[in-house]
Amino acid sequence: MADSSDFKEGAGVIDDELLSIRQRRLEFLKKKREENLRALAEGGGVLKDILESEFFPIVTSKKWVIASFYHHQFSRCSILHDHLTKLAAKYPAITFLKMDVEKCPFLVTKLKIRILPVMLFFKNGINTGRCVGFEEFGNKDDFPTILIEEKMEKEGMIVLDESAVEAATAPKDTSSKTLGSSLHSTTLSSKQSEIQKMREKIMQEEDDDDIFG
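^ thats the sequence. predicted structure below, dont judge the formating
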């Protein structure tokens, strides 16, 4: 007959699986950081102001591009560019562009640019999304840069670190016997949910192994 030493308690199995998944993801992110360093050495990491004639050659030759269309008299365009300058330095393998609408009338018409500022997202030369004005950022001038990063993640450009994982897997106070069973069940449920989310994230990342390239 099997004894208790032949089995692991449920929480222990979940902890081991979560640790394994997190380790795979850390290795993946390490690889992407190395790719970013190479891109930085090759001249990436800056928000480039380009001419209309440069647009299509750049966009069609890069995997990921964010292009901002601006007018020099619009203050919100300057605010957006402050954020994009920070993001370009943080994600050098992504190409960040800006274009003066007065100097690119063909693109303004072609891409149906009507409201400024506007950001367009491209993958392999195809426009996959856009942000018009600051509506997605709470329509406030002082929005945090992380809101743009969340949009970038939705577009598949980056993978944000999941700080929520730490909170979800943090030890709970089980000093009360009355609440102990309930807390244990809640912790297991939270970890199981987190494992599922991280599995899906890993699958997405490995399906698109050059996510930053």
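The chain has two domains: 12-34+162-207, 43-154.
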